[in-house]
Amino acid sequence: MSAAWSWYVIALIVLNIVGCVWLLWWTGRRKPGDPAPTDTSHYWDGDITEYNKPMPKWWINLFYITIVFSIGYLIYYPGLGAYPGVAGWTSAGKHEQDKEKFDARLEETFRPYVGQSIDVIARDPTAVELGRAIFSNTCATCHGSTAQGAIGYPNLTDDIWHWGGSPDQILHTVLDGREGVMPEWGKVLTGMKGDNAVDYVIAYVRTLSNPEALQGDFMAAQGKPLYEGVCVACHGIDGTGNQELGAPDLTDGYWMYGTSKASLYQTIAHGRHGVMPAHRELLGETRSRLVAAYVWSLSHEDGAGTAQ
């Protein structure tokens, strides 16, 4: 806050306090010439009289006490512009104190799981429930409250893992994030086989989960050499992918961006760029282990505890 604004705020506060004191004094005193409290000459219905009685002294004194209290409050706490107050209290400082207190309680709750493997943590029902709560607060925005994902966000409840589904791989994903890039191949493929090249590759890719469908499919047959010339570097000759690169398995029937021809065309011709943010700084290692254990438990029910 600038000095000018600070003095402006101080002036407003002082004027309001002085104004309240003056108003109490002016309205609470009897002025010369005022009629007696029982003599106002205002009558209604013959027996109802309007009196002119000021407020009781004890009531007015309570107002004065309130004003004195407000002055003391403004001196003790920061209320006069940029003046910090004699107590040195700040809302940011109070927040930090409360945060430290609750962080200490959380650390005590999480202490039993420090450094444990997520498959071990997942056997503890309490830990699974803690992980579920962290997931709901942090991960459900993208993966959904049921962890079944959405278009562009993977389903975490099945056994399909683009970056690997081992405990260490899942933990690495949560802690340090992932970045998957599908390059744009539209221009390259068109230069190789003409305007229908992307459609040919789509037709062939769809046969990878059912090789017998390749027989007699002209478009898929045209797409096979294109796939082998461009796509095998990441997805492999058999289309099973490469978890080291995050290249998905094209034979499992799962398509993160949808199964429609338009979606596959967008993926191949124009590429995709998927990012899983790193959560190491946001959650810390132990909370990341808990949420990773919860995610691991969703597809390993036999080796996981049941959330309460």
Task: Provide an overview of this structure.
- Keywords: Cell inner membrane, Cell membrane, Electron transport, Heme, Hydrogen ion transport, Ion transport, Iron, Membrane, Metal-binding, Oxidoreductase, Repeat, Respiratory chain, Transmembrane, Transmembrane helix, Transport.
- InterPro entries: CcoP_N (IPR032858), CcoP_N_sf (IPR038414), Cyt_c-like_dom (IPR009056), Cyt_c-like_dom_sf (IPR036909), Cyt_c_oxidase_cbb3_su3 (IPR004678), Cytochrome_c_Oxidase_Subunit (IPR050597).
- Pathway: Energy metabolism; oxidative phosphorylation.
- One of its GO terms (molecular function) is metal ion binding.
- With 308 residues, the chain is mostly helical.
- It has two domains: 89 residues, no CATH class; 198 residues, Cytochrome Bc1 Complex, Chain D, domain 2 (Orthogonal Bundle), CATH 1.10.760.10.
- It contains 13 helices and four strands.
- The strands form two sheets. The chain has a two-stranded antiparallel sheet. Strands 3-4 form a two-stranded antiparallel sheet.
- A hairpin with a 3-residue loop joins strand 1 and strand 2.
- Helix 7 runs antiparallel to helix 13.
